[in-house]
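Contributing new records

If you add data, match the layout below exactly. Sequence lines come first and carry their own label; structure lines follow with theirs. Keep one chain per record. Anything else will be rejected by the validation script.
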Amino acid sequence: MVRAAVMPGPGMPVEVREFEDPVLEPGAVLLETIYSEVCGTDCHLHHGRLAGVPYPIIPGHVSVGRILEIAGQVADIEGVPFRVGETVGFLDVHETCGRCWYCLVAKASTRCPYRRVYGITYSADDGLLGGWSERIYLKPGVRIVRLPDNVSPETYIAGGCGLPTAFHAVERAAIRMADTVVIQGSGPVGLCATALARMSGAGTIVTIGAPELRLDLAAEFGADETVDVGHTSAEQRVEHVRDVTSGRGADVVIEASGNPAAVVEGLAVTRDNGVYVIVGQYTDNGTVEINPHTDINRKHVDIRGCWGLDFSHLYRAVAMLSRSVGRIPWEKTITKRYSLREAGEALRDVEELRVVKAVIEPSAVLSRRAYSTHLSPGVLPSSTARQNSPFALS
């Protein structure tokens, strides 16, 4: 039997259940999970803030594991067959059709209506299709990436969901050498965007966020300046960016906060004819008021949304991860590891910003004491968390 942490429904206690070992269909791969990420998306899932989620689910959409079994021959993108015992990651997005208008004409597979996502849009009734489990069933066609020799499982999961997501955002931003870049948010996506902006040749990088633990990491990831939202007002932050840029504003601003209020502020700090990329608004956290004339039209600003990622972002992100090992302290983002039975604690710690990144280690035993993962619907007060720290989860 295989143990997995299951989210039965919004606000319901996370519980550990047992599942039968899967029988592999041709082209499938079975992984032994080494680590699986706990990210802001999982907190949103627990609050029921994502539409179309087929509860109960096994969360964990980004994971790293060791190949236990392969049904037939499965190869990587270079045509090299995978082998039992290899350590791999995989693209959590699956079943993108390659036949619809978005896939073939718009070249925007992230908007394919048939796409499914491990740990989010697959039910636990469908099998081991989430990472908070001792094993993960990779369905035929799942895109798998072999870890480079210098990338450990810890380094890979430290990049986690944030790295390919930030890669897509930075790609959308088209940062040029010497650009002044502002990153709104110091969670995993914001930290990774900071690092990738530095790799892209940015001149001055200002990372805005909280708490201090995350801002300290932002400096190590390449930020020239950090601004704590807990000790500044929006007006002060706008004024600071204008001071840094001789009154113009930043060339590129990337919103990775998840707070709608950040969008108003982000437009204010983007220079005329600048680029504003919005990647953090993954769930509907409400509306904000902007003036289309003064905030967009007259500024001639280029606003670019950024939704999800495809295999190219994961593939290239892993390549950049490999090139930056030893230069960027990726593993410092992992604040704490949790067993399956500590998944509820992990959710709470992520929501309350007690960690930068939490990871589930299914093979781990309880580190300190038996811990109940039963959470009442009020344990994770998302609205309070957003009020206290506007740049929190992304």
